Model the fold of this input.
Amino acid sequence: MLDRADNSFVLPPEIDRRRTFAIISHPDAGKTTLTEKFLLYGGAIQMAGQVRAKGEARRTRSDFMQMEKDRGISVSASAMSFEFKDFWFNLVDTPGHSDFSEDTYRTLTAVDAAVMVIDGAKGVESQTRKLFEVCRLRDMPILTFCNKMDRESRETFDIIDEIQENLAIDVCPASWPIGVGREFLGCYDLLNDRLELMDRADRNVIAESVEINGLDDPKLAEHVPADLLEKFLEEVEMARELLPEFDHQAFLDGTLTPIWFGSAINSFGVQELMEGIGKFGPKPQVCPSDVRPISPDESKVSGFVFKVQANMDPKHRDRIAFVRLCAGHFKRGMKLTHVRSKKVMAIASPMLFLASDRELAEEAWAGDIIGIPNHGQLRIGDALTEGEILRFAGIPSFAPELLQSVRATDPMKAKHLDKALTQFAEEGAAKLFKPMIGAGWIVGVVGALQFEVLASRIELEYGIPVRFEQTQFTSARWLTGPKENVDKFIDGNKGHMATDHDGDPVYMTRLQWDIDRVERDFPELNLTDVKTVMV
Ligand code: G4P
Done:
């Protein structure tokens, strides 16, 4: 979505101060804890523990499903907005489990930057690497937070080397840790020449900060024991020789990441990271569309749906479409054109997500994420504008890796199952295929856990117990080409054909050999594993 080459536009102050980002990490690295501390510093919650209700709820309140809590995974993404100093932060929560990578991908299309959290003892873990690769596809700027420095962790240089080598990105230290594990004292803020000391006694207060006049300042010795100071000074000298300096453009281009060291649970290093997000940005970026790049300072409002979530509140059967505003100043009650249907929608109850609460959004600006309640009109990828017919660069939909048929254990409920499945397909929670021959549905997902999540949601939200079963197919590919050829192919291969929930034809098979054969024998047709959802 981003065109970082063109940063020349001057933004209205309200847009200029917006920072829209996501946190990416491997489970357990500390994403929830860091989110909680962001909200704490942002004044969105009063005390740590509100997001993570101790003992009872393991994850942030954005994870509303019991199953997520039970399993300790975060399946659904949501947004949180809060102010920090002069900035307005929109933090979009990414699902933490690798099975939900498509959802994560979509989430990342709605942000301008990512904070990568790594565990100081574990370094770059598998899930971090995967998510990083997704960010890299879009050259997204990344800020790194090395967490859990209060525990025994790796040598600072080892951590930095691992990131550089493993992720092929330059790393510039924004702070440098002094001591490690039990001896961890705090960090030296290399960008602001400050010594930040950690207060282990109170995890919710802002730690002490000492103004220092450079590394020769004798005040350093007053706070840091001689042996630690010596090691620290040596390391910083080496770091300055060996590691790149901070280069703002390289950061914006996604080729260099600044790294902060800290301990989220001790609220340590979090503020400096937030200041970094504020200072380095990026501010809301240009969104490409099929007509022209949409600059955030355009006066007309436009945005796109990157996520649809149904039944957020079991008491209200509502659907929330999460919209990233790309341009303009949105006001409640505005009439926006839903480009796909060409219908005008009055946006009467837009929502902002403040920590765990939703609030009516009286206004919002480019960069913001708003929630629009609707009855199913809004789908992932849909554009909303003040009348202009344009499409934002599509959000891709990936072919599922696992296929299973689904049926209601109570045949009387089969009809309601159609409705539930269609809704989950529109929400992007699964791919839904209707075979051209025979009855029933085939559901496609990326990871096996999604079947369980779906079964549980269908039962919970619709009261329909279901069973997933093996099918004869293992692969699905979208079929495109000249209409005449497509129709002819469908006629001759009905047993392999299905339609997805948009009605587009899909070829299904068990054998890669079949796919190769179709590609060889029908050169005018395409079988693709990615479909770009266009509006
Ligand atoms: P996640 O969302 O990335 O999965 O991680 P989460 O924040 O849930 O943190 C995972 C575990 O790591 C939690 O411990 C959390 O308290 C701990 N943790 C987070 N930040 C730090 C830190 O800076 N230092 C240390 N030492 N630990 C940290 P838990 O035992 O799983 O949960 P809980 O009993 O603390 O709630």
Summary: The chain has a mean pLDDT of 85. The two ends are 16 Å apart (CA to CA). The CA atoms of residues 478 and 504 lie 7 Å apart.
